[in-house]
Specification:
With 208 residues, this protein is mainly alpha-helical. The chain has a two-stranded antiparallel sheet. A two-stranded antiparallel ribbon has the order 2-3. Helix 4 runs antiparallel to helix 5 and helix 5 (134-154) packs across helix 7 (181-194). The chain starts with a strand and ends in a 9-residue tail after the last strand. It contains seven helices and four strands; from the N terminus they run E-H-H-E-E-H-H-H-H-H-E. The radius of gyration is 16 Å and the shape is globular. The chain has one domain (2-63, 104-199). Strand 2 (74-75) and strand 3 (78-79) form a beta hairpin.
C-alpha cells in the first residue's frame, strides 16, 4: 500500500507495477519507463491546464460559451465539444463524449485491444472529473489505475514508439476531457480530493 498525492503519481506507480520484465530488475526498468512517461505527460498536461485556466486552449476554453456541442476548435478533423456542463454530448450512451470517441477512433485504434484500453481511460477520466465526494473520487482513482495498467498490458514494450503511444493516450484524452474552464476546475477539485488517499495496485483483470 502506498500513500498517493495526486492521480498522476498514482498512475506512474501503477504503470510501473504492471510493466514488462521479470523480478525486481524488470520492475525497476518498468518503473523508470513509467515514471519518465508520466513526467512528460504531467508537463504537457500542466501546460494545457495553465492555458485553460487563462481561457486560452484553442481560444475556446471559456466555460462553454457556446450553447451547443461541436463549436470548439477543429483539431485533426475533430469538432471539439465545448458545451456547458461536465458530460457533453454522448449520443450512443457509451460513457464517452462523442468528440473523444472520434479522437480514439482516429488516433488510438491500431488494434481492438488498444481501442478498448483508450476507451477505458476515457471513461475513468470522465468519472474522475464528475466525482464530488472522497468515496467517488477514490473509486475513480482506482479505475484510473486499472486503465493505466490496462494500457501497459496491451502496449507492453519499452521502446520509444510504444512509450509515445501510451503517453499520448493519457495526455490527449485528459486534455479533451477537461477542455473547458468549468470541466478543468471540476477536474482539479477532484484531484485535490484524491490527495492523501491510500491506493494499491489493482488486481487482474485490469482491462474491462
Amino acid at each position: 500500500m502506498k500513500t498517493i498525492h495526486g492521480v498522476a503519481i498514482l498512475a506512474a506507480c501503477l504503470s510501473a507495477c504492471s510493466g514488462s520484465g521479470s523480478g525486481d530488475a524488470g520492475r525497476r526498468d518498468a518503473a523508470a519507463t513509467a515514471s519518465g512517461e508520466q513526467a512528460s505527460a504531467m508537463t504537457a498536461g500542466n501546460d494545457q491546464r495553465m492555458r485553460a485556466a487563462g481561457g486560452g486552449h484553442g481560444g475556446h476554453l471559456d466555460g462553454g460559451v457556446d450553447s451547443k456541442p461541436g463549436k470548439g476548435h477543429d483539431h485533426e478533423g475533430i469538432s471539439e465539444d465545448t458545451s456547458r456542463g461536465l458530460k457533453g454530448r454522448d449520443r450512443d450512451g457509451n460513457g464517452i463524449r462523442d468528440d473523444i470517441d472520434q479522437l480514439i477512433a482516429q488516433k488510438f485504434s491500431p488494434t481492438p485491444e488498444v481501442k478498448r484500453a483508450a476507451e477505458q481511460k476515457a471513461r475513468a477520466l470522465q468519472a474522475m472529473m464528475e466525482a464530488s465526494t472522497k468515496a467517488t473520487v477514490h473509486k475513480a482513482v482506482y479505475e484510473l489505475g486499472r486503465s493505466t495498467a490496462c494500457i501497459f498490458k496491451v502496449i507492453p514494450e519499452n521502446n520509444a514508439q510504444d512509450a509515445k503511444i501510451r503517453q499520448a493516450i493519457s495526455q490527449e484524452i485528459e486534455a479533451y476531457t477537461a477542455n473547458t474552464r468549468e470541466r478543468l476546475l471540476k477536474y482539479m477539485d477532484s484531484n485535490r480530493l484524491a490527495g492523501g488517499g491510500y491506493f494499491s495496485q489493482p488486481p487482474e483483470p485490469v482491462c474491462d
